[in-house]
From TrEMBL:
Source species: Solanum commersonii
Keyword Protease included in the entry's annotation: no
Domain of life per record: Eukaryota
CC per GO annotation: endoplasmic reticulum; Golgi membrane
Listed transmembrane segments: none
Enzyme Commission number(s): 3.2.1.-
Gene3D superfamilies, alphabetized: 1.50.10.10
Disulfide bonds: C71-C103
Pfam families: Glyco_hydro_47 (PF01532)
Name of the protein in its database record: alpha-1,2-Mannosidase
Residues annotated for Ca(2+) binding in this entry: T223
A molecular-function term among this protein's GO annotations: mannosyl-oligosaccharide 1,2-alpha-mannosidase activity
This protein's UniProt keywords: Calcium, Disulfide bond, Glycosidase, Hydrolase, Metal-binding
GO BP field: carbohydrate metabolic process
Amino acid sequence: MGDSFYEYLLKVWIQGNRTAAVSHYRKMWETSMKGLVSLVRRTTPSSFAYLGEKMGSSINDKVMYMDELACFAPGMLALGSSGYSPDEAQKFLSLAEELAWTCYNFYQSTPTKLAGENYFFNDGQDMSVGTSWNILRPETVESLFYLWRLTGNKTYQEWGWNIFQAFEKNSRVESGYVGLKDVNTGVKDNMMQSFFLAETLKYLYLLFSPSSVIPLDEWVFNTEAHPIKIVTRNDWAVSSGRSGGSQESDRQLRTRKEGRFRVHH
């Protein structure tokens, strides 16, 4: 339930231009990823990689499950892989690709080709739908977008197109798109979540757009898919030797605090 925290550790580092001033966020993210790697499991017989969930201090390896929400992780891992040494970078990129394959199969494993909310991985079985609704979530296509941009592998476009076609077939109605109460039967609900427009369709659009559209070396997306400009300045706090106690720094800090807490009428 703290997924955005891990995502933001990485993205604050990127948004801060990967400078020394924000390097501690990168270190925290890398520490967190060691924990994530310890949760990776693989199914039998098909060896789908997935992320187990730790309940308290223990993991039940007999009955494991993974939320579709966790399918943001392949994109995050791919985005963060470039900050490692070449060998480590390849390891994390490979894990991202393995997890993306699992998430894509969340969709492919159902009659509607749309993913359920979560999946169980029982001992000796690959995957089965747990909670069977689909509310048009963006996480899997978000990861496909990152992997396409970072690898150039058109397979991720093909997977995204298949998911889009499944939305068109099962969720399209006269006034928009709706979720499914059950991905096995195709029974519809009567609601279009706002994130379908703000995130799911946005990432699908970008998946088929040139890399010059919101390039990842100039922009970073927050967890709701809003693009934020990367700070392109040098690491002035370090390179210029400016003191945090300077008059200018004090003025900037005071302005920020006043702006943050000012009451607007």
